[in-house]
Specification:
It holds the Pfam family Acetyltransf_CG. The chain has 117 residues and is of the alpha+beta class. The chain has three helices and five strands, in the order E-E-E-E-H-E-H-H.
Amino acid sequence: MAENAAVEISDDRERGTLTAYEDGKAAGTIAYFVMAPAPGALVAVHTVVRPEHEGKGIAGALVRKFYALAAEEGVPVVPLCPYAAKWAQRHPDEAPAAPEELVREAERQLKDHPELF
């Protein structure tokens, strides 16, 4: 489905959330963390869209913005979130693959620090 142009996306780095708003209401979120040592990578952990907003392209818009933020910061994205990983496979021109050692380190950091999720 085409991504919704009316969605506004806000990054809250302190909380590790990228949130999409539709008509001023939170519609979806990517939970993420900045891999240590910062800025090692942006690691997408979980993508959620509220049921009443599903099917509007919000999850795709969030992941696209997440990759754009990482590109602006000059860091890779490690998509541990299954949705983000699938999106990246479908959009290789916008979502360069992270080196395997970076993926393994992100997985280790998440396992060692479950509060990051």
